[in-house]
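Bug report (template v2)

What were you trying to do?
Predict the complex of my protein with cytidine-5'-monophosphate.

What happened?
Run completed; filing so the output is reviewed.

Input:
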Amino acid sequence: MKKIVIAIDGYSSCGKSTLAKQLAKELDYIFVDSGAMYRAITLFFLRNNIDIQDVKAISAALNNITLTFKYNSLAGKSDIFLNEENVALQIREMRVNDHVSDVAALEAVRTFAVAQQQQMGQQKGIVMDGRDIGTTVFPDAELKIFVTADIDIRVQRRLLELREKNPSVTEAEVKQNLQWRDQIDSSREVSPLRQATDAIVLDNSKLTREEQLAIVLGWANDKINK
Ligand code: C5P
């Protein structure tokens, strides 16, 4: 059967990764959470006190980073490894949330990550979610989806996720972080968050996970059978 590339972009905490993961499972495709790559790079920068104004330090740091995804059968998803260390949990910490958009705006970081993402998509049969997948990483993707949801619904979703690990996190803190990241992601010079002209918009504010999956599977099958 024909294999396609599916690009899913959108604002923070719209459920892009959840959707991408479900879709990949249904289609037996590879799922790649590109945000996890920017988060792992940010974790490395934080641990090694890399000054993000220092171009040489950034380039040296990137030379010391190897990112890989390995399937975790217990979790039913791939975990990201930073230089052979599983950092799937550490990359979700608030300190990473606080710095990731600044790190992801750096040109050298984007060149580094995008090259690896494009490599992963060469064989097609992939669902990747992020901010620039339909515009920069896979401009020729057969199916591009731009996900959006009401900001208060996004805050509640992220709050639930963060409170599992850190019960003291506040709603105001989460809302501020989401809005701040969306603003930096949309206004940066290199590969800003944009809806590709040929993307289909999916507002999932009022959809259950199952409803959203059914809609998107329909779109994917249309493209596959075309
Ligand atoms: O998707 P997630 O929220 O985990 O992504 C974390 C951050 O990584 C985003 O806020 C954004 O700054 C950056 N990112 C990006 N381009 C992507 C994916 C994520 O700039 N393709």
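What did the reviewer find?
The pocket of cytidine-5'-monophosphate is lined by residues 12, 34-35, 38-39, 100-101, 104, 130-133, 181, 185 (CB under 6 Å). The mean pLDDT is 95.
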